[in-house]
Amino acid sequence: MRRVVSLFVALATIQAHDIITTKITFSKEISRLIYKRCATCHREGGSAFSLVTYDEARPWAKAIKEEVLERRMPPWEAVKGFGEFRDDRGLTQEELETISSWVEGGAPEGDPKYLPTPPKLVSWQDPSAPKGSSEIILADGATTTSSAKVVAIRAKNLNPGASVQIIAIRPDSSIEPLLWIYKYNPLFHRTYYYVTPLTLPAGTKIEMSPPQSGTVGLFVKQQSGAGSRPALFFQVFAKAISENSKLPADR
Q1: Is CATH 3.30.70 the classification given to domain 133-242?
Q2: Which terminus of the chain is more exposed, N or C, with fewer CB under 10 A?
Q3: What pLDDT, in 10s, does the model give residues 164-208?
């Protein structure tokens, strides 16, 4: 009888653990992704629960997979390939597949000797306005009346959960993708800095899809002799607002 009980307990213990079917481990691959993409917030003393060690991350393995596949984490919100931004915190497709394979394969720890050196962590900050720039607020359908060099963009006045595409149509009909926000969350509101500043000539039209989704803040680089440009942009914005009285309230 004791032998039967012992076998039952042993079998139950084996079944309680996931079967390991992957060579991807926390020590080699996942820890590096967490240090790079998650640890700014998910650490001791950070704004969210810590995921820095295997013991901390393992209970959340399935939740991690779900959150990253839904693009809710890391909180970046800008759709990749629609505008090129600096300091992109979103996961690449390869990184998504690595996390998914690790979780589906039993989320093994691996040999701790392969763990990387813990990173020097600092709190992530998002300045509201890049240095040396002016924020120009434009609504859907606005048209610029002077040329400008745009260094960054910030979605404004969007409803929570909204997905919005913002493009610029130049006078020559060429289209510049500015920003595509996916499932906007005001808690993660941020400024997106372009890898290369965008030149928008006079006569460039701003369009949003769906229409009348809100407004967008363009950060225009200040240049000598360009003191009147923000005023010109603002006049265009005011005209667009007067033609669209149903913009969602600022949140």
Answers
A1: no
A2: N
A3: 999 999 999 999 999 999 888 887 788 899 999 999 999 999 999
